[in-house]
Design goal:
Oligomer: single chain
Distance between the termini: 15 Å
CATH topology of the largest domain: Rossmann fold
Number of strands: 15
Radius of gyration: 21 Å
Number of helices: 16
Number of domains: 2
Shape: globular
C-alpha cells in the first residue's frame, strides 16, 4: 500500500509516563505503523508529567523512545505538568492540535481525558476512536462529560474497552452501547516469556535475590487504586511465614525516593528490619519482562478502577502465577492460571504461598494460555476498528 492510500491516524496522549494504558496504546500504535497499512503519529498534550512524586519529561519515557524507534512521529503541545487539561485549552494549543488533526483520517484518543481538546471549536471534524482502560468512569471528572458529549454529537465513531468491566461501566455511565467495542489487552509473547535454568539464577543474583527465594512481585504504581498499604500488610504476613519469601515492588513511586512509601514501610516493618530486608524496591523499570521472569508470583491488590491489568498478563506470560483481588476483569483473566483473593492480608499472603507451591502444577496452563494473550489479535482488532471509522466518515484527506 502506498503512503497516499494508507489510513493516517493521530493518537492523542494526555502525557507520557509509565503505566499499563500507555504501554498498551504505544504497542498498538507502533505495531500498526510497522504493518504499513496505517501511518500513525502521536500528539502529547503535556511535555512532562508528575505522578507518584516523580516528575518525568516526555523524552525520558520508554514508550516515547519505543515509538520513535518504530518510526512514529511524536510531538507535544508543550503544556507543563502542573497545568491540567481541565484548566482549559489555549488558542495556541487548539490551533497546533487542529493542524495535526487536519492531516489525519482518524483520531485515536488514549482514554477520555484528551477529549477536552477534541471538544474545542477549532478542532477539525474527524472520527474519533476512544481507547478506555479503566472501570471507574465516576472517578474521571469532567473527562466523562467530554466523552458523553462527543458521543452524543456523533464525534465518537467507536469506544474501545480493554475489558468487559470497562464496557459495562461506561454503558451504565451513559455511553451508547452501539459505540462500545471490547478488545482485550495483549502483550508481545516474544518479549514476555519464561526464563529457566542458569539464566533465571543469574537474573535473580543480579537483583540480590537468593537462588531458592520464593519471589512475589508487585508491578504497580504507588496509587490508592492499587492499595499499596494492603499489599504491604500482606507482604509482612508472607515474609513472616516464609523464611525464603522475598517481595519485589516496581513501578512509579515504588522506590525509596517516595516519602509516602517510606512511611508505609516504616509503619508495616518498623519493628522488624530483618523482614524489611527482604522487600526490594526497584522503582520504574525498563525491563519488566526480566523482573517478572525471576518471580514465582505476580500480585495485584487493587481496590477499584482496574479493567484488565497488564501486570497480571505480563507476569503470567513470564511464568509467574497471578494472584489478584476481584476487581474489574481480573478474576476472568486469571481463571485457570491463577488465584483470586479477598482483601484480608492473611488470606492474600496464604494465596501467594499456595500459588508459589503450585507453580509447577500450573505451568502447563500458563503455556496453553499464551495465544489468548498475544498482542497480534489486539492489533488486528484495533486496525479493523480504525478502518471502519475512516470508511464511516468517508474522508479523503490531502497528503
Amino acid at each position: 500500500m502506498s503512503e497516499r492510500d494508507a489510513t493516517r491516524v493521530l493518537s492523542l496522549y494526555e502525557g507520557f509516563f509509565s503505566g499499563g494504558a500507555r504501554v498498551v496504546h504505544s504497542t498498538v500504535v507502533a505495531g500498526l505503523h510497522a504493518q504499513g497499512r496505517q501511518r500513525h503519529s502521536v500528539l502529547s498534550i503535556h511535555h512532562e508529567v508528575r505522578r507518584e512524586s516523580t516528575l518525568q519529561s516526555m523524552a525520558d519515557d520508554q514508550r516515547y523512545r519505543t515509538l520513535l524507534a518504530a518510526g512514529v512521529r511524536v510531538a507535544s503541545l508543550g503544556r507543563p505538568a502542573d497545568t491540567p487539561l481541565s484548566a482549559g485549552v489555549t488558542e495556541a494549543e487548539a490551533e497546533a492540535a487542529a493542524r495535526r488533526a487536519s492531516a489525519a483520517h482518524v483520531v485515536l484518543s488514549l482514554k477520555e481525558q484528551p477529549l477536552g481538546l477534541v471538544d474545542h471549536p477549532a478542532f477539525p471534524d474527524r472520527p474519533v476512536v476512544v481507547a478506555l482502560h479503566r472501570s471507574d468512569p465516576e472517578h474521571q471528572g469532567p473527562a466523562l462529560d467530554h466523552l458523553r458529549r462527543a458521543a452524543r454529537t456523533g464525534r465518537v465513531a467507536a469506544v474501545v474497552c480493554c475489558a468487559e468491566s470497562t464496557s459495562d461501566a461506561y454503558r451504565a455511565a451513559g455511553v451508547p452501547a452501539h459505540l462500545l467495542r471490547v478488545i482485550p489487552n495483549g502483550v508481545n509473547l516474544a518479549r514476555f516469556r519464561p526464563v529457566t535454568g542458569a539464566r533465571r539464577l543469574a537474573l535473580r543474583g543480579a537483583r540480590g535475590l537468593p537462588p531458592d527465594a520464593v519471589v512475589v512481585t508487585y508491578a504497580a504504581r504507588y496509587d490508592p487504586m492499587k492499595d499499596p498499604r494492603l499489599f504491604l500488610a500482606a507482604a509482612r504476613r508472607f515474609v513472616e511465614g516464609s523464611r525464603a519469601g522475598h517481595v519485589v515492588m516496581c513501578g512509579a513511586g515504588m522506590s525509596a525516593a517516595n516519602a509516602d512509601l517510606r512511611r508505609d514501610l516504616d509503619a508495616t516493618f518498623g519493628d522488624r528490619p530483618d523482614l524489611l530486608a527482604r522487600v526490594h524496591l526497584l522503582g520504574i523499570r525498563q525491563d519488566p519482562e526480566l523482573v517478572l521472569a525471576v518471580s514465582d508470583v505476580v500480585a495485584l491488590t487493587s481496590s477499584f478502577g482496574e479493567a484488565a491489568p497488564l501486570c497480571l498478563i505480563e507476569g503470567a506470560m513470564c511464568g509467574a502465577v497471578p494472584v489478584t483481588t476481584a476487581v474489574g476483569d481480573s478474576a476472568r483473566l486469571v481463571e485457570g492460571i491463577g488465584l483470586v483473593t479477598g482483601t484480608d492480608p492473611g488470606e492474600i499472603a496464604a494465596a501467594w504461598a499456595e500459588a508459589a507451591m503450585r507453580r509447577a502444577e500450573l505451568a502447563p496452563a500458563l503455556v496453553a494460555a499464551r495465544p489468548r494473550f498475544s498482542h497480534v489479535r489486539m492489533l488486528s482488532a484495533y486496525a479493523s476498528t480504525i478502518d471502519r471509522a475512516r470508511r464511516g466518515a468517508g474522508l479523503t484527506v490531502a497528503v
